[in-house]
Design brief:
Blueprint lengths: L30 H4 L24 H5 L3 H4 L6 E6 L2 E5 L7 H12 L4 E7 L4 E6 L6 H9 L3 H7 L10 H21 L4 H15 L1 H14 L4 H14 L3 H31 L7 E6 L2 E6 L8 E4 L8 E12 L1 H4 L5 E4 L3 E2 L4 E13 L5 H11 L9 H25 L2 H8 L3 H22 L2 E3 L2 H9 L2 E4 L1 H5 E12 L5 H12 L5 H12 L7 E7 L3 E6 L2 E6 L1 H6 L6 H12 L3 E7 L2 E12 L3 H10 L4 E5 L4 H11 L3 E3 L4 H13 L4 E5 L5 H6 L2 E4 L5 H6 L2 E3 L6 H35 L5 H19 L1 H8 L3
Parallel strand pairs: 13-20, 13-22, 20-21, 22-23, 23-24
Antiparallel strand pairs: 1-2, 2-4, 3-4, 5-6, 5-7, 7-11, 8-9, 8-10, 8-11, 12-24, 14-19, 15-16, 16-17, 17-18, 18-19
Length: about 775
């Protein structure tokens, strides 16, 4: 373990040489205890282990030990487990880098395992797996049954890299695109098209038939995959290469989009815990040493300074800090923390210094629990589904049954061909996605990115919408609202003293005061001295006067008199959702400056518009305290406000509403909103939101305008209207064609013309939004 001085120059970097460590307050140490020299030894020793384990050794060291050790079983221990991820420790492999990496690569090749992170210092393996196909006890048993000799033998085996689902679906989509192109190019030569394209279609259709078989045998029901398979079969049996190719192309396009979204979401969610690979300063013995965050243990004390990302959950034992918790709680204002208060991992220290005793690390921290909840949330479908399923259930299967009965009674192949070419399924499958794609393109031109057809369906059905407050309904920027003078002081003089005292301070409120002074062109005074009181404010000597700028607590500690009038003014400001900053000069209150997180100017009109388009329940759900949140909700015309909630509590509110039969949309911008976004039926991410909210949301606003939210609802209504029109067109014309074919009044060619013509007409109808967009020159 290296012990290093904590300076701005080397913080967070991997040390390359040894230096004396700095001291934990109140303790003395000899220089000898603060210095650790780098390990020098045999060639197989690389460096001292960060975990405090033995030096790292190559696998050649294992080969030199006796045969008894080679035969020892690995005997792994489960350190932590959540759905989709398990962390095991193999003590025998601790510090043997080559063998640990070899075993990690082997585990990556196992069925259901998606990824493996290896910490060879500690012999630790974090295994990510498919929760639907893999059991953790199988993983543990397979590792425990191996010997060191087995692991050495694995080195000779080539490492097989698991192919991701998105790569498989992309491969099928590419083949489907080739088949589509060939079928169109060879449409005039049916025999050649059948010979070249059919074998390709049969190969591409295999995943669809596999899913259909699995659903029928395992779940004993018919689902959308069965309908896909039925439509493909009709197309293949009738020799309609173009329709069959179009069908399989659309199916694999939907599969690829779904898998791509899931893969991207998984990577983004994992990034939230990247800070566990950083370094932090930990008090060990009589010095502070720099160690990896993931190696910090419960009960240890971590040293934290301004600007640090807090790496653990813990309790402050010494010092005071200002913490920005917006990433987890959604609070608009930084929070003062002192000895005895709890802090959370992934939050940021805006000011101050403190020592924190660790209560939770790694996967046990609050932010890790947020990640867990997002990972376990249900994945969204990205294909248009509900309306297509209902339509096909009512029409496709009855038509197939009727066709079979008619053929059994006539045994006429031409008659059968005419009936089979009346394909209800293709019209449904082609026209619905066309309408969805058209509306999605139209939405994008208006600054609204909608990820798929299922999101449009959910929007159409949504009766409840929940808003986060900070950064969503508000700008997230703190600004001065009121300047109230006392004891003869006017606004300009109050701001001059306050801004002079707060100059160069990093607190958001201090920055807001200075910006306000600049905007009003108020001249600042000469500041002689200034002392910052963490969590209270500043004590400054300005132009020979003693000036206090900060909280009521600061004034009370300095015996500044506070009368009933000041209390009434303070209560009024709080009831209006504002925060207050107090200024005293030479022991007398000079003024109060109020602040608020600015409400977006379009927020009120947007909520009124939501009510107009049919959303009956508009709710504010925020981590802010009631006294800040309720006035904002009342001002905006919300139907309900729920304040002071944590991320997992937001998800509980969403789940409870869904259980009551509501279809819930959620609008948010931060990591603290990602859990609720995942559990909502449809999520909105506003511009500037965190990456994870963009991944978990179904709708992303591309510009900073909340009016796009009700517009998205209107687009969803237009989409469903177009889909219903297209079903009427394809259904009506195909029913006519089927009836004529049933009575043997039309030939197979004419029935095909009517059937395919209905799909073409429906597609043109579905493209109306794009046509309008082009006519308007967008």
């Amino acid at each position: 373990m290296e012990t290093l001085p904590k300076t701005d120059d080397d913080y967070g970097q991997i040390p390359t040489e040894t230096n004396a460590g700095h001291m934990y307050p109140g303790k003395a140490a000899s220089h000898g205890s603060a210095i650790t020299s780098n390990v020098v030894g045999p060639a197989n020793v690389v460096s001292a282990g960060v975990c405090g384990e033995a030096p790292i050794k190559s696998s050649s060291a294992v080969l030199e030990v006796n045969s008894a050790l080679l035969k020892m079983r690995l005997s792994c221990t489960v350190k932590h487990s959540i759905t989709g991820r398990i962390r095991i420790c193999v003590a025998l492999l601790a510090s043997y880098k080559d063998l640990s990496v070899t075993l990690g690569n082997y585990l990556k090749t196992q069925s259901g395992v998606t990824d493996v992170d290896v910490n060879y210092f500690c012999g630790s393996f974090t295994i990510y797996y498919d929760k639907d196909t893999t059991a953790t006890d199988v993983i543990v048993k397979s590792v425990s049954a191996m010997t060191i000799s087995d692991v050495v033998g694995l080195k000779a085996q080539p490492v097989q890299v698991k192919t991701e689902d998105k790569e498989i679906s992309l491969s099928y989509f590419r083949w489907a695109s080739v088949a589509m192109g060939l079928s169109l190019g060879l449409g005039g030569v049916p025999v050649l098209a059948l010979a070249i394209v059919y074998p390709m279609l049969l190969y591409i259709a295999v995943p669809v038939y596999k899913r259909t078989y699995k659903c029928i045998t395992n779940e004993h029901r018919l689902n959308v995959d069965f309908l896909d398979a039925a439509a493909l079969t009709v197309g293949l049996l009738t020799g309609d290469v173009i329709n069959a190719s179009a069908m399989v192309w659309l199916i694999h396009l939907g599969d690829y989009i779904r898998d791509l979204t899931a893969s991207s979401s998984h990577r983004t969610i994992r990034k939230l815990l990247d800070f566990q690979e950083n370094y932090a300063w930990v008090v060990r013995g009589e010095v502070e040493v720099k160690v990896r965050v993931k190696d910090i243990k419960v009960g240890e004390v971590v040293s934290l300074n301004v600007g640090n990302l807090i790496p653990v959950d813990g309790e402050i034992t010494e010092g005071e800090i200002i913490v920005d918790q917006q990433v987890l709680t959604g609070e608009s204002f930084p929070v003062h923390k002192e000895a005895g208060d709890m802090v959370l991992a992934a939050t940021v220290i805006k000011d101050g210094k403190a020592y924190v005793r660790v209560t939770k690390t790694g996967d046990d921290t609050k932010v890790a629990q947020v990640v867990k909840m997002v990972e376990e949330a249900p994945l969204y479908e990205t294909k248009i589904q509900n309306h297509a399923e209902k339509f096909a259930d009512r029409v496709v299967m009855p038509s197939l049954i009727t066709t079979s009965l008619i053929f059994a009674s006539t045994l006429s192949l031409p008659h059968l061909a005419a009936l089979l070419t009346v394909d209800f399924g293709t019209g449904v499958r082609v026209s619905a996605p066309t309408a969805v794609l058209s509306c999605m393109i139209s939405a994008t031109s208006h600054g609204i990115l909608i990820k798929g057809g299922s999101y449009l369906e959910k929007l159409y059905k949504s009766d409840t919408i929940i808003f986060d407050k900070t950064g969503t309904l508000t700008t997230g920027e703190i600004k001065v609202e009121d300047v109230i003078g006392f004891n003869g002081y006017e606004e300009e003089e109050i701001i001059s003293y306050a801004a002079t005292a707060e100059l160069q301070m990093t607190h958001p409120i201090a920055e807001a005061v200075v910006k306000y002074a600049e905007s009003k062109h108020i001249e600042l005074k000469i500041r002689d001295t200034v002392v910052y009181r963490v969590g209270r404010g500043v004590d400054a000597l300005i132009a020979g006067k003693n000036v206090l700028v900060g909280s009521l607590r600061l004034l009370n500690e300095n015996s500044v008199p506070i009368d009933d009038e000041i209390v009434i003014v303070t209560d009024t400001l709080i009831s209006d959702g504002k925060a207050a900053l107090y200024i005293s000069i030479d022991g007398r209150l000079a003024g109060i400056i109020s602040f608020s997180d600015q409400i977006r100017k379009e927020a009120k009109a947007m909520i009124d518009e939501l009510h107009r388009v049919g959303v009956t329940n508009v709710i504010m759900l925020t981590g802010d305290v009631k006294k800040v949140a309720y006035p904002v909700a009342k001002m905006l015309g919300m139907d309900k406000c729920i304040a002071g909630v944590l991320p997992e509590q937001k998800a509980e509110v969403v789940i409870d509403l869904k259980k009551k039969g509501h279809v819930v949309a959620f609008v948010g911008d931060g990591i603290n909103d990602s859990v609720a976004l995942s559990y909502a039926d449809i999520g909105f991410s506003v511009k500037g939101g965190a990456d994870i909210t963009k991944e978990t949301a179904g709708v992303i606003l591309l510009d900073d305008n909340l009016h796009k939210i009700p517009m998205a609802f209107e687009i969803s209504k237009e989409t469903i209207k177009l889909i219903k029109e297209n079903y009427a067109i394809t259904g009506g014309l195909n029913v006519v064609a089927y009836a004529l074919a049933a009575f043997n009044l039309i030939s197979p060619v004419l029935s095909t013309l009517i059937s395919n013509g209905s799909a073409i007409i429906a597609c043109i109808n579905g493209m109306k939004p794009i046509i309008r967009m082009k006519l308007k020159g967008r």
